[in-house]
Amino acid sequence: RQHDASKIPEPKKLPLIGNMYQLFGLSDNIFSTIQTLNKKYSIYKISHIFTSTIQICNPKDAQIFLSTKQHIKKSLMYRWMQDWLGTGLLTSEDSKWHYRRKLLTPAFHFNILQEFFKVFDEHSQLLVEKLEEECDKPYVDIFSLVSNFTLHIICETAMGIKLDESKKSMREYVNAAQKIGTVLFRRMRRPWLYWNFFHFVSSNKREELLILKTLHDFTTSVIAEQEKSFKNLDVVEYNETDGNFVAKKRLALLDLLMTLKYNGSKINDEGIREEVDTFMFEGHDTTAIAVSFAFMLIANHDEVQNKILDEIQEVTNNFNQKIRFEHLSKLRYLEMVIKETLRLYPSVPAIGRKTTEDIYTSTGYFIPKDTYVGVQIYSIHHNDEYFPNAEKFDPDRFLPENCQNRHPYTYIPFSAGPRNCIGQRFAIMELKMIIASVVMNFKLIPIDTQSSITISSNLTIKTTDGIKVKFEKRSFI
Ligand code: HEM
């Protein structure tokens, strides 16, 4: 065992600015700079005068940090996100996180998801209608179109409100949600902005405040709208053992939070705002990204597209029935396509933690308590050692027999362990419904390819120039 954190490999350092300078430069190529480092080392340290982070690019160490209840504290980036998300489920720690996680888990129970199906269906059909209007165009920039639909879906399901289609604030919200990531990333790359004072007086902060206003105005209007129609049912009881209030009936997210607020629990207006901001963002952006990359990959792989279509044909009795809730679990090949899309393009490419006790890595490096750690999901997914010919899109990697011998932490698009994604099943259902509805109605024609796009760094994975796909109406259905 090597008992020394200083033994962890470090890319070349300079005085004061450490090796952080490696990440300076244009935001477009930062992503590839990070990936080059990630390919070179399976674990390494990146640092400057104010802070250092251990980057983990291998599944064994990812398991050490993610699988236990021990390391649920988050890294610096999540603290910077608190002006936006408060301490909602994604950014909270310790007892607050435990309480909220326990409280909100039933809001994504199977029975609730089943009720959401009609919303997934309705918006998938509306997306099909919208794409029909786009068939004449040389291509569709898919993310900006789909994110509108996924925002509607999260509002109508988890928040329980129907958005007004013409609402200008909706588009503004989606744009602001893209911009906030850029502002947060800019801070990460400028060491002097780690100092709250310097950040407070910077132009970055001024930009952040404007963006936050747009984001918060939108979520505030969603809460106000839901509150107008909210009916307070007597479904809350006090749990003597843990001193918390619980709902006796399963409720969707915002209904649950409102019910608890009106019945004297710990949830107040601020708590509601935190969770609405958190779920609104996590719930629409991640899924829109996944749909966009899935369309690009399907368009570029005819054999995959045909297999998806064959499976839908079989499940819907030769396209004679509409896709129903019970069909979703039968769309097994489509599920493999979604998994392979999330391997190549995990919507959340990296996550951060802070150690809560001294720890040894799988190769014996010592990491002391209170160290920031980054788990590099994208680079674990792109490692040829775990996924031979890793850049190749091959859904068969997820055939049961092909998964057996893989370390479980080689594939972690939803993270893993107690702080994994609470919306995982929601996301898979929504993706299945949207992709099946679109492939059933259109032939997807490639415009962008895996090599034509440039991935850019943001909180979630983005490209510098959108993702372009062409849609051609199928005539035989
Ligand atoms: C393809 C879609 C999605 C992907 C790839 C994804 C991925 C992730 C990942 C990697 C995390 C861990 C973040 C971290 O530890 O910092 C996470 C957490 C989370 N996700 Fe998702 N997510 C998706 C969809 C959703 C949806 C649809 C929702 C809401 C309905 C959602 C809500 C959340 C929340 C609230 C957390 C924080 C959980 C906690 O800390 O207890 N996600 N997600």
From TrEMBL:
This is Cytochrome P450. The keyword Endoplasmic reticulum applies. May be involved in the metabolism of insect hormones and in the breakdown of synthetic insecticides. InterPro entries: Cyt_P450 (IPR001128), Cyt_P450_CS (IPR017972), Cyt_P450_E_grp-I (IPR002401), Cyt_P450_sf (IPR036396), Cytochrome_P450_Monoox (IPR050196). Its cofactor is heme. It is found in: Endoplasmic reticulum membrane; Microsome membrane. It comes from the Eukaryota. Belongs to the cytochrome P450 family.
